[in-house]
Amino acid sequence: MKILVCISHVPDTTSKINFTEGDTKFDTNGVQFVINPNDEFGLTRAMWFKEKQGAHVTVVNVGGQETEPTLRKALAIGADAAIRVNMQPNDGFSVARQLAKIVADGGFDLIIAGRESIDYNGGMVPGMLAGLSQMNFVNTCIGLEIDGDQVTAIREIDGGKETITTTLPLVVGGQKGLVDESDLRIPNMRGIMMARQKPLTVVEPIASDARAKSVSFEKPAPKGAVKLVSPDDLDALIDLLHNEAKVI
Amino acid sequence: MSILVYAESEKGKLKKTAFEVASYARALANQLETNVTAVTINAESTEALAQYGVDKVLAVNNPQLDTFNARTFAQVIKQGAEAEHAEVVVISATANCKYLAPLLAVELNAGYASNVVAVPESTTPFAVKRSAFTNKAFEITQIDTPVKLIGLSNNSFGLVEHKVELKTEPFSPSISENNITVASVDKTTDKVTIADADIVVSGGRGLKGPENWGMIEDLAAVLGAATACSKPVSDLGWRPHSEHVGQTGKPVASNLYIAIGISGAIQHLAGINASKVKVVINTDSEAPFFKAADYGVVGDAFEVVPTLVEKLKAFKAQQ
Ligand SMILES: Cc1cc2nc3c(=O)[nH]c(=O)nc-3n(C[C@H](O)[C@H](O)[C@H](O)COP(=O)(O)OP(=O)(O)OC[C@H]3O[C@@H](n4cnc5c(N)ncnc54)[C@H](O)[C@@H]3O)c2cc1C
Ligand SMILES: Nc1ncnc2c1ncn2[C@@H]1O[C@H](COP(=O)(O)O)[C@@H](O)[C@H]1O
Predict the structure, then answer these.
(1) Would the CB atoms of A213 and B307 count as touching at under 8 Å?
(2) Do strands A200-203 and A81-86 pair parallel, antiparallel, or not at all (unpaired)?
């Protein structure tokens, strides 16, 4: 089985979000970048398929040279090879187009991406990739078993979960639940050393048009101070929620 | 030219999100001077959509569509959009809509903006505001394709009544088989889901153990709220994973979010910040949640919550 794990390179969850160049660009100053958490769950599940079922795992990112440390980290965790499509992503669709080309050329059976990136929050790349590649697609995937080309997947739905059966080739939008959090791996010294020997191939992008482009950013208006209510006067809280906030 | 919405239903009943996307589409239709058409799939009655400005319903009734299938549903909506020459297609942000949206965008050759929170800032060029960076910022996105797909963030626009004449027509799109089969569904049907809820009551590690969740459920019950929890609570197995909210859990965009024994870590706040009104109950007045909340009680949850439940019961009885 050939697995492709799509890795989005995103600001760490504790990052302060600021913008520069007249609020048109994300300010990377002092920001630490990590593997998108949803992708980390997917990568770890891919490691399981590698170790238990002999799968070959490639990781891919569409991005500039600055994302290479993130790809190296994925290699250190255990992926066999990495590909970087040398393009600054401008929208989810153009990323999906690049990935579809990688998928077509590489003959992958299973593509694991994240249900959403925590920066752009598009929630669109895996589904668009599945649409463009005419592959089966399971989103918000929290369980994945593969036997030959038969797939059993669990999908999180509003208020519960459902079990889906399908076949490879498949695109998955993964998230927490795909593996236990305690199974997530921190690269060790040996992994880091080995990652240096593994191939990281840079490919040039194919022509692709952006369909939705980012124009500018703004930050939410600062919030007023909290109104404190004494624990001995909870009627006041009910009154505020009813008459002032009008939410109960 | 018109605007098409997908008015979702569950077990034949239109969902609240159906009325919200209709309200949004109506506001946009007034801006563009056009009509709103809704596609419904196996909805028993479509009448209520008239209340929220839908001029026409394409009612699809087909037992093959009783179980949700993203690709098939995307095909149905696509055919609706084509029949109406829709320029803008609006869907909600339920798990099912987020699943089908990118497939639909590919089918329609449409630019897709998800997490949209307001009517377009401008329609030529077509630019909408969406939330990004997990509610830490907004982004203005410009869609340049002839057909545009909008994923409306739940609870961001609200329900706006605008009564119009509605005509309902049967619609029979062609449906092709695909390779995704739902083998089983495991869903708690008697509880409000976090996605549908107007009010969410959420508990954190401050509650000490799963045995103390009775008061959280009592509070949720008086308020008709969904229950949720912080990440460590689900990691510890005190509550199911489906209740974990935050940046890496479920997003919450309710009208009221009540956080009990939750410190307010940045990853937690990111996922719930889209909620309109936030209340925190915490023993530690220095807990970061107080900076994010609208109302706060510095106190022990084990005393405050039971009292609050009693007082709310009395309040509800009076109403
Ligand atoms: C990559 C990453 C992603 C993450 N994603 C998420 C996420 O999606 N969602 C999430 O929630 N967290 C997430 N976290 C974890 C987050 O950083 C915090 O650790 C977590 O939110 C803390 O949970 P808590 O507030 O329940 O517990 P604690 O931080 O332990 O806080 C407990 C609170 O309860 C209060 N308390 C104690 N006793 C009482 C009492 N009797 N009455 C009232 N209050 C009391 C305390 O004062 C304290 O403020 C993530 C972390 C990382 C690193
Ligand atoms: N630039 C990128 N390169 C590789 N994979 C990506 C990229 N952007 C998004 N993805 C994948 O698509 C998922 C969803 O991203 P998004 O649609 O942006 O929310 C991410 O979790 C990644 O798995």
Answers:
(1) no
(2) parallel
Instruction: Give the Cα separation of B106 and B90 in Å (integer).
Output: 15
Index of the ligand 2 atom closest to the CA of residue A36: 21
User: What are B126-168's pLDDT values in tens digits?
Assistant: 999 999 999 999 999 999 999 999 999 999 999 999 999 999 9
- Cα distances (angstroms) measured from residue B300 to each of A50, B64, B208, B260: 49, 52, 12, 9
Please tell me the distance from the alpha carbon of residue A137 to that of residue B4, in angstroms, as a whole number: 25
Distance CA A109, CA A135 (A): 10
A-B Cβ pairs (cutoff 8 Å, strict): 260
> Which residues are CB-contacts of B25 (< 8 A; sequence separation ≥ 6)?
B3, B4, B5, B36, B53, B54, B88, B90
pLDDT 10s digits, B78-107: 999 999 999 999 999 999 999 999 999 999
Judge whether B172 and B78 are in contact, CB under 8 Å.
Answer: no
How far away, in angstroms, is B296 Cα from ligand 1 center?
16
Query: What does DSSP say about strands A160-167 and A150-157: parallel, antiparallel, or unpaired?
Result: antiparallel
Region class of B61: left (phi > 0), else alpha (psi between -120 and 50), else beta: beta
Torsion angle, alpha carbons of B40, B46, B50, B51, to 10: -110
Contact A247/B at CB under 8 A: yes
pLDDT of A90:
87
Cβ-based contacts of A37 with chain B (< 8 Å): 247-248
Q: What is the pLDDT of residue B187?
A: 85
Q: Which of B213, B243, B263, B298 to mutate to test the pocket of ligand 1 (most atoms within 8 A of CB)?
A: B263
What pLDDT was estimated at residue A177?
A: 92
Whether A229 and B297 lie within 8 Å, measured CB to CB: yes
| Contact (Cβ atoms closer than 8 angstroms) between residue A240 and residue A229 | yes
Taking CA atoms, B267 is separated from A56, A190, B117, B232, B250, in Å, by 33, 31, 21, 12, 12
B184–A245 C-beta distance less than 8 A: no
- For residue A36 and ligand 2, the question of a CB distance below 6 A is answered with yes
Rounded to whole angstroms, the Cα distance separating A110 from A106 reads 11
Helix (H) or strand (E) holding B5: strand B2-7
Q: What is the mean pLDDT of chain A?
A: 96
Which residue does chain B place closest to A211, by CA atoms? B111
pTM for this one? Answer: 0.95
Q: Does B144 contact A212 at a Cβ distance shorter than 8 Å? A: yes
